[in-house]
Specification:
Largest sheet: 6 strands, antiparallel
CATH topology of the largest domain: Beta-Lactamase
Number of strands: 8
CATH class of the largest domain: Alpha Beta
Helix content: 40-55%
Order of helices and strands: HHHEEHHEEEHHHEEEH
Number of helices: 9
Structural class: alpha+beta
Distance between the termini: 48 Å
CATH superfamily of the largest domain: GAF domain
Strand content: 15-25%
CATH architecture of the largest domain: 2-Layer Sandwich
Length: 260
Amino acid sequence: MAKKEKSEYLIQAVSHALDLLEQFHGEVDELGVTELSKRLKLHKNNVFRLLATLESRGYIEQNRVTENYRLGLKTLELGQTFIKQMGLLRQSKPVLETLVHECNETTYVSILKDYHIIYLDVVETAMTVRVVPRVGSRLPAYCTAAGKIQIAYMNDEELENYLPGKELQRYTPHTITDRDTLKKQLKVIAEQGYAIDNEELDIGVRCVSAPIRDYTRRIIGAVSISGPSMRFSEERMKDELVPLVIKAGEEISTKLGFQK
């Protein structure tokens, strides 16, 4: 008997339930039945049944004031379990803590997913003025240090397929929106082994980042130091922060089996 394709085993109700959960992303924290029905192209009765099932298991909860729905605590538990199980996070946590001790700035570890980076873990500085932690957030790769260091080593064909087909969105006056200019910068980043975000995503915030590699020599993430521009002068970044973040990236990579 011929082997069935995996698509033949898909359960439509489960697929719809996952589609529903995936509607809660980015700035979307609550949605009503009508909006979910429109987004999923499903009848309201079907949406009600999906919501009731997910609510009974703790993956969805209803705001009794607005009567809209939001993600439940069970989704957070799953996410935390995923993060804890990742070798990358287990190995990087002590390095992030040491890095904060050395520079007293907020440090991150992140991965690349689709066209975005996702911060998986953070160790905050004790400084009063600091950047807001963005663990779990999806941020554009082309205007963040962590994103640029991870796409800088792609070949021309990979990069062409990876960059959004439409015009690159401008977030600040410093955002690079010209694709050719960005590609030139990425080549420099690949040569020097680190990337800098000079207020390209948020005004007043700068960041330096270095790659994390595994035993196959593949880049699987990035380590970053981020903080307010007033503390991240060009001189400090070059003389102190860049060497520290490169060292941290190498330490985590070594823990993951990477050998030069």
